[in-house]
Amino acid sequence: MSSLEKVFTVFGLIEWAKADTETDQTKKIRKRGQFYILLLETVGVEMAILQTVAELIRICRQLQKPLIIDADGLFLITQDIGLVKDYYGAILTPNAIEFCRLFGKDRDLTMASLARLGAGVTVIEKGRNDRIYDSQTSEKYECPQGGSARRCGGQGDLLAGSLATFYYWALESKQEISPAMVACFAASTLTKTCNKYAFKAKGRSMTCTDMIDQIHQVFDDLFEHKKD
To answer: Is pTM, for the whole model, over 0.90?
Structure first.
């Protein structure tokens, strides 16, 4: 099985939430026990769906699975941050507004607010310069790529999806430094550079699809190990 096939993206939770009983929902989740990284994306904010997602997070914690939470998954965390407290291997990917909802607007208190996550949770805050926070070491890293010439709808999805792939690779490489931190930095770099390349080609008419078209070239330029 390839690394991409081991990345299990949950877009079927809406249907799962319509199951007759909670047991039916959790059985469907547990049958996917072979997945390696779970990516919680846009799943909706209906109560039944959020209850299913909350149960899914608890199961992932029990199975010690790496977890990436984006979009509507973050809405759930603002309601109950205890779902990811001390969840070693979890990554949150909030934009500026979502970050403020989670940790407040006072930047002087950001690290203190992040302490509520406990140990082992990594946060990548998407913005002009993406910021990566490690709740275990209380360290903050600011990515140097700068802002996007045109911020496209779907750009966050591109970051989240690439983050899942990079995270798997980082975990498999048995790196001494934090695999989550490495994956966040790589995903931020890839996404911002795809934006740069796409804007150069399409200008103000650029969409996220144009960014996706640049993945191969950006990856080849930045990440591939080439023989001389």
So the answer is: no
